Write a sequence for this structure.
């Protein structure tokens, strides 16, 4: 029986249960997110990792209820935030949460900021949409937030246009806007994709420091496990719309259990490896998620593939300490596979 609002676990800031988001296309049903579950506690940073097309961004757009419809539709599951199922809220109730209690920082700040409006105009509009304060108070808060994210001469820069900021500074503006209403959850969708390495480090350090200072929960979407190592408390590894492994970050790196997770970690360049050694790479490409057969979608690329992997999807096995994996190499699957 599915949980009601009163039955859900109140110790969690966010609780996603069996979420399914599909896209109906002429070619078939794209199961972009297919039955995933995870929790997020207050002040925690959760990493969601995986290759492009694994369902990371769609998961978080589903949490914000920003899935374009048509062709997309959330066909099942529950998303509890502060005791309420987001999927059952009205549009007016949703507006009080989206951008206010839950905010999102997108990949490219230049396409997220309006190039024709000053930064002050955009920040003031965001603040006044969710808070009953005057324009003067909203401007003062905007300046304070720009200072908080490390933008120098914030009083002058707040009147600039987006094109007058560098890529890193624009991303700082986006973070300031996202946190200007004192959001409880910040969703960062690959916030460093378009930035150079030095600026990437600054933005990630900024997100980490603001999370600790404001006690904000963070969901970090990335394909870079190197980023996850220094920033996240827990990690969910996604593949073909499903979570194939989740664990505390240190446990994931110490003992990656799913062959896909192992491959991702091995693909990260390391300074303690031989300079002339070849980087590990996972063979093949992610699968087409249109009408996937009921088997393990990773089996064509897996170096530990067994016959059962080609016919049945593996159950989720609890390895202890919150470490879970969906692979036939473990638990009941191990017995069925005769490993």
């Amino acid at each position: 029986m599915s949980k009601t609002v009163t039955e859900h676990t109140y110790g969690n800031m966010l609780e996603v249960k069996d979420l399914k988001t599909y896209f109906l296309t002429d070619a078939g049903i794209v199961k972009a997110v297919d039955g995933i579950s995870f929790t997020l506690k207050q002040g925690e940073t959760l990493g969601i990792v995986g290759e492009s097309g694994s369902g990371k961004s769609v998961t978080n757009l589903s949490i914000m209820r920003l899935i374009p419809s048509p062709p997309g539709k959330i066909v099942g599951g529950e998303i509890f935030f502060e005791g309420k199922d987001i999927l059952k809220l009205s549009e007016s109730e949703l507006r009080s949460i989206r951008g206010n209690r839950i905010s999102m920082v997108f990949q490219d700040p230049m396409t997220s900021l309006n190039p024709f409006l000053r930064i002050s105009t955009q920040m003031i509009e965001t603040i006044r949409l969710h808070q009953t304060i005057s324009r003067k108070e909203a401007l003062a808060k905007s300046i304070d937030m720009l200072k908080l994210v490390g933008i120098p001469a914030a009083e002058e820069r707040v009147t600039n246009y987006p094109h007058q900021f560098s890529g890193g500074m624009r991303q700082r503006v986006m973070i300031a806007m996202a946190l200007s209403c004192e959001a409880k959850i910040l969703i960062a969708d690959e916030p460093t994709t378009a930035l150079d390495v030095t600026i990437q480090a600054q933005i990630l350090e900024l997100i980490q420091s603001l999370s600790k200072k404001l006690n904000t929960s963070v969901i970090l979407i990335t394909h870079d496990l190197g980023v996850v190592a220094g920033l996240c408390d827990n990690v969910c590894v996604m593949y073909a719309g499903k979570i194939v492994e989740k664990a505390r970050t240190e446990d994931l790196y110490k003992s990656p259990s799913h062959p896909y997770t192992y491959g991702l970690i091995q693909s990260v360049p390391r300074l303690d490896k031989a300079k002339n050694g070849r980087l590990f790479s996972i063979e093949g490409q992610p699968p087409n998620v249109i009408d996937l057969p009921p088997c393990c979608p990773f089996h064509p690329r897996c170096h530990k593939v067994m016959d059962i992997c080609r016919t049945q999807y593996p159950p989720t096995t609890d390895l202890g300490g919150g470490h879970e994996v969906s692979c036939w190499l473990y638990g009941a699957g191990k017995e069925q596979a005769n490993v």
